[in-house]
Design a protein that fits this description.
By secondary structure, this protein is of the alpha/beta class. Helix content is about 30%, strand content about 15%. The longest helix is centred in the first third of the chain and has 19 residues.
Length: about 375
């Protein structure tokens, strides 16, 4: 019997740059994380072997071979090699890694022996090239799950989200929260994909294809999921795909979910922002409207679905809940399923958002998505 939950088959006050103040608030949290690691906590980190093996090559999934091109219903990709078991389980939704495999280098090690690793991804559809961090739970290498797919959680940072993704810093505790949730039976063992959010530190791009700018919407919605499918055992259907994000990352996750409800099913949106406001939208109102969650939700409601699930998180010590409540009142109907989770004494930072996930949001998303199935016996 599976130990996982039952599954189904704020913007802060604005500064001169509009959203930039809240983005910086999250960015400052990431900087504090670095200070803790490199400062007073640095020696303890080394003693605990946090960095042991950093820079070394990492592989996920043991010696499991990628599926033959096209045999799993996915696109044929250069570099893919045949699999001895193109239909590994009775679930036709399982998709084996299609390849080509990326080159991963360890960036940190968790106490349970799992690692966070980084690679460089050249997006074939967006034309953008950027860093992506990944983490797989220890269940991913468990032989009894060797032929099962795993749900994917795409974690998006706040701030400008460049050149790093702060969810890849173990000090925030995202990966630990998932592992502990698996053991407690309150979380699925997610594969976590952590891409850069923006192409530079100069502007914010709303995770969108703004005319004349790098195609960050295509990067997030297509290249990053394609990368996950190339390297991990995933589900073909949207039932295995969700976002989580904070601040600007929450906006991008929610916006992408509403744009592509046939590809993604849920989002945990923390301290989120509701409407696009990049300064680069000037002169492109129609394109901006096509990336507005309010308008996207209205369109999805009018079309009758499919159902999507949005779980807002907001700290009681931060602003922004009024915007979430307005969205829930106006757009949380029909296929747009919404909830708001208050984080008591929570502020606009990643630590408190992870606490909210541990207190209930991980269990919420785990009940919405499909989990891995072990082999019988």
């Amino acid at each position: 019997m599976d130990q996982y939950p039952q599954q189904s088959s704020g913007r802060e006050p604005q500064g001169p740059g509009g959203r930039r103040k809240s983005r910086r608030a999250i960015g400052i949290s990431a900087g504090v994380v670095g200070a803790l690691v490199l400062g007073g906590g640095g020696f303890a980190a080394y003693k605990n072997e946090w960095f042991d093996g950093n820079g070394q090559a990492v592989s996920f999934g043991g010696n499991h071979q990628p599926a033959a091109a096209g045999t799993d219903g996915g696109p044929a990709q250069k570099g893919a090699s045949p699999s001895a078991s193109p239909t590994p389980t009775g679930d036709p939704d399982v998709q084996l890694p299609a390849g080509p495999k990326s080159d991963f280098k360890q960036t940190t090690r968790l106490d349970d022996g799992t690692v966070i690793a980084k690679t460089r991804l050249a997006g074939t559809k967006s034309g953008f090239e950027g860093d992506v961090w990944v983490w797989a739970p220890k269940e991913y290498d468990d032989p009894k799950y060797a032929k099962s797919a795993f749900p994917v959680l795409i974690a998006l940072p706040g701030g400008n989200g460049f050149p790093t993704n702060y969810w890849a810093d173990r000090s925030l505790g995202l990966q630990k929260a998932i592992s502990e949730g698996v053991q407690a039976g309150t979380s699925l063992p997610f594969v976590v994909i952590m891409p850069v959010l923006n192409p530079d530190n100069k502007y914010y791009y709303d995770g969108a294809d703004i005319p004349g700018q790098p195609r960050m919407g295509t990067w997030i919605a297509e290249d990053v999921p394609d990368f996950a499918r190339a390297n991990f055992r995933t589900y073909k259907s949207r039932d295995g795909w969700a976002f989580m994000g904070s601040s600007s990352g929450a906006f991008v996750g929610m916006k992408t979910l509403l744009q592509y409800p046939d590809r993604f099913k849920a989002v945990i949106a923390s301290g989120g922002e509701i409407v696009p406001d990049s300064p680069l939208w000037k002169g492109h109102q129609a394109e901006m409207d096509a990336n507005n969650p309010e308008k996207l939700a209205e369109k999805l409601i009018a079309s009758g679905g499919p159902d999507v699930y949005i779980n807002f998180q907001v700290g009681t010590k931060e602003s922004g809940k009024d915007r979430m409540a307005k969205f829930v009142q106006q757009c949380g109907k029909g296929p747009v399923k919404t909830t708001i989770r208050d984080i008591q004494n929570g502020e606009h930072n990643g630590w408190h958002y992870v606490r909210g996930m541990k207190e209930g949001s991980l269990e919420w998303v785990s009940r919405v998505l499909k989990g891995p199935k072990p082999e019988a016996g």
